[in-house]
Amino acid sequence: MVREFFYGGDRFRATLHGHAGKEEVFIVQMLEDDEEGPEISLDRFEDPANDPSASIESVLTMLVDRMRCEQGLLSSNQDGFAWSEGRVLAKVHSGVQH
Questions:
Q1: What is the CA radius of gyration of the chain?
Q2: Residue 82, domain member (yes or no)
Q3: Which of 5, 18, 82, 87 has the least CB density, counted as fewest CB within 10 Å?
Q4: HSE (CB half, 13 Å, CA atoms) of 36?
């Protein structure tokens, strides 16, 4: 799945591969004119601290917070998480071949 979301007043694009709770997660901050900014990723399958029952929204916010901390970035404001309605950029099949 490729989908945009807002968090802390900023826009991000999330790309997820895999099964729920065991995804590879890639996040890119989207800048003006749809240019790509800082990015971060996490392989939930390999991460020993992964909680497979954690919602994808909580994983995305944790990763954005980590990226901001590591790169010294500030959020635009204190808005919470929200999916960008109508901005599902790609849906990926389940991997099951029929």
A1: 14
A2: no
A3: 82
A4: 7
Q: For a pLDDT cut of 90, what percent of the chain falls above it?
A: 57
What's the confidence (pLDDT) of residue 20? Answer: 85
What is the rounded distance in angstroms from the CA atom of residue 4 to the CA atom of residue 46?
Answer: 24
> 61, 7 in Cβ contact below 8 A?
yes
Read out DSSP for 21-54? TS-EEEEEEE-GGG-EEEEEEEETTT-TT--TTS
Q: What is the pTM of this model?
A: 0.82
Residue 32 lies in a domain: yes
Domain count along the chain: 1
Question: What pLDDT does 57 receive?
Answer: 94
What range defines the domain where residue 71 resides?
2-75
- Does residue 97 lie in a domain region? no
